[in-house]
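Format notes (please read before filing issues)

Several people have asked whether sequences and structure tokens are stored in separate files. They are not. Every record keeps both together, in the order shown below: the sequence lines, then the token lines. Line labels are part of the format and must not be stripped during preprocessing.
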Amino acid sequence: MSEQEENIEVIKKGYDAFTTGDMETMMSLFDDNIEWVQPGDSAISGTYHGKGELGEYFMRLGEKSPTIKPLRFLADGDSVVVLSDVTVGGEPGQGAEVFTLRDGKTVRAQLFEDTALMKRVFGKKQVAAG
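Then the structure lines:
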């Protein structure tokens, strides 16, 4: 099996774990210093660093009963792109997630999601008064 095929298998395992609610398995697939980027200006948008922050993100995401159905897995070098159908808070959308792997673990995830959908479902990010 090539490195690209192995990387796809890691990502597929993560989607399966997410779908079944197996957070322990899912979190084991991330590097301790994972960087996760959720685009937009919704209340959960931002860049999360490390498994602690990522766990908090997933807890907040889980409040809106998300489902993700991966449609295609595309690999190039150390990157895997997943094209998916998503539902969050009962609202459907589409997304693309780009995962960067190193030594069998995801070190970075950059999501390309429907930012308007996420803002409708989670609300707008509150900006601290300065």
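For reference, the curators noted about this record: The longest strand covers residues 91-102. The mean pLDDT is 95.
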